[in-house]
Amino acid sequence: TQLLEQSPQFLSIQEGENLTVYCNSSSVFSSLQWYRQEPGEGPVLLVTVVTGGEVKKLKRLTFQFGDARKDSSLHITAAQPGDTGLYLCAGALRGGYQKVTFGTGTKLQVIP
Amino acid sequence: GAGVSQSPSNKVTEKGKDVELRCDPISGHTALYWYRQSLGQGLEFLIYFQGNSAPDKSGLPSDRFSAERTGGSVSTLTIQRTQQEDSAVYLCASNKQGSGYTFGSGTRLTVV
Fold first, then answer.
1. Of the candidates B21, B4, B9, which has an alpha carbon nearest to the alpha carbon of residue B101?
2. Mean pLDDT value of segment B55-77
3. Among A64, A85, B60, B68, which has the minimal tally of Cβ within 10 Å of its Cβ?
4. Testing the interface with B: which of A98, A101, A104, A107 to mutate, by most B Cβ within 10 A?
5. pLDDT digit string, tens, across residues A51-105
6. In the beta sheet, which residues pair with residue A63?
7. Which residues span the domain enclosing B86?
8. Which chain A residue lies closest to B107 (C-alpha atoms)?
9. Contact B107, B9 (CB under 8 A)
10. Residue B45: pLDDT above 80?
11. Domains of chain A as residue ranges with CATH
């Protein structure tokens, strides 16, 4: 059973376009993290959101945690080729310790 | 060290052989995790160590998999009698309480 479903699975867009990646679950999370992974490397943490409704911005990336803490979105404005990679959300269950469950992943390709 | 170090970076082994994968976490990080990733997809949890507590082994797929963490630092993941379905990238991560994970670059295991 996959706790965290991401959509879309694959996304290929032109440089300069905007995009949104979704991370959805039926479970409530105490916090949610977003990572980006490039080929041959481990995932790198982008952001952690902990409060329902929270919005965090990291340059052209905007992260939102759903009010009910069951879902999250990542919006990229004016995508660049350097944004290419695998985007992973990861949630820590309420009441659990630090172990997080990773989503299914969204593979993004930004074409110059 | 400055980051999480994993070795070897690549391992090719024959079906039925045993393999050992090593992870050297960031100094001072009390928690250490092993995940498995197949074909650039999401991460599958394997095992989690937190300080001196008993490890959470709930993600180990079979009794051929085992892991230990010596002295609260270096960890070794052992796969006995490897099978072709064990082929994957094995990722190690560490963190401090309440912070996101720092991943190593992984060990790509190929069972032929």
1. B4
2. 93
3. B68
4. A98
5. 999 999 999 999 999 999 999 999 999 999 999 999 999 998 865 557 788 999 9
6. A56, A74
7. 5-98
8. A40
9. yes
10. yes
11. 5-111 (2.60.40.10)
